Every structure is written in structure tokens, then in C-alpha cells.
């Protein structure tokens, strides 16, 4: 069982930066693939970035070169550094932990990111 709590969201102007954190409690954080998803009003939730237990990363095309996902297994925390923010980055950002064995997946409650023009 893993509990996730996001923090770091807020209101920022276009071009600004934010760093989201996802603190995990529970066991064996390092084995999980950690992902950041977002959901804009009226849209489906989409994967923004993910990082494997080995540190491999991938990103949705729209955030490549602007967002960086990372993890600190010693602190049981995943991060999403967001730079050059755009209005279309606005949404609720959710942290996800996923482990293939048993298809275990866990979600945080989300944190709001609003980018104003």
C-alpha cells in the first residue's frame, strides 16, 4: 500500500516555473514507476511524465524541454520541475505510483496548477 500527497501547485504567470513534489508513504517506493498526470477542465486526464525505478524517463510531446521529472528514493519523493509554463499547462496535477506485478496503482488527491496570461 502506498499513500501519495502532492504539493507545490499554485498560480503562476506565463513563462514562470513551479516544482511539484509527491511524497509517498508506505513500503518500497523505489520499485514503483512514478508518473505525473494532469487533467484540464473538460478534458481527460493525460500522462505528462513518468520515471521508472531505474531512472528512465519519458514525456508527453507538449512538455519536452520544459518539464523534468525526477525522484529521490531516499526521501520517498518524486518531483516535477516545470519551466516556461504556458496557459495550456493549467490543470490538476496528480501523482501516480504503478507497479506491474499485481498491476498495483495508487493516486494522490492532486494539486492545482494555474497559469495566467
Quickly list its features.
117 residues; mainly beta; 7-stranded mixed beta sheet; 4-stranded antiparallel beta sheet
Structural description of this entry:
- By secondary structure, the chain is mostly beta strands.
- It is built from no helices and 11 strands.
- The strands form 2 sheets. Strands 2, 4, 5, 6, 9, 10 and 11 form a 7-stranded mixed sheet that branches. A 4-stranded antiparallel sheet has the order 1-3-8-7, with no helix packed on it.
- Strand 4 (33-39) and strand 5 (46-51) form a beta hairpin.
- The protein is globular and about 40 Å long.
- The mean pLDDT is 96.
How large a portion of the residues is in β-strands, by DSSP E? over 45%
Total DSSP helices: 0
| Largest sheet, strands/sense/barrel | 7 strands, mixed
Average predicted local confidence, pLDDT: 96
Helix-strand makeup class: mainly beta
- N- and C-termini, Cα separation: 40 Å
Number of strands: 11
Query: What is the chain-wise order of helices and strands?
Result: EEEEEEEEEEE
Short summary:
The chain is mainly beta. The chain has strands at residues 2-7, 10-13, 18-26, 33-39, 46-51, 57-59, 67-72, 77-82, 91-99, 104-107, 111-116.
Amino acid at each position: 500500500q502506498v499513500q501519495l500527497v502532492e504539493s507545490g501547485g499554485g498560480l503562476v504567470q506565463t513563462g514562470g516555473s513551479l516544482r511539484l513534489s509527491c511524497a509517498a508513504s508506505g513500503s518500497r517506493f523505489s520499485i514503483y514507476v512514478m508518473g505525473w498526470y494532469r487533467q484540464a477542465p473538460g478534458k481527460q486526464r493525460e500522462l505528462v511524465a513518468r520515471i521508472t525505478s531505474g531512472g528512465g524517463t519519458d514525456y508527453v510531446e507538449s512538455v519536452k524541454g520544459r518539464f523534468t521529472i525526477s525522484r529521490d528514493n531516499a526521501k520517498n519523493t518524486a518531483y516535477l520541475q516545470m519551466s516556461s509554463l504556458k496557459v495550456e499547462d493549467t490543470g490538476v496535477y496528480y501523482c501516480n505510483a504503478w507497479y506491474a506485478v499485481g498491476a498495483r496503482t495508487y493516486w494522490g488527491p492532486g494539486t492545482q496548477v494555474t497559469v495566467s496570461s
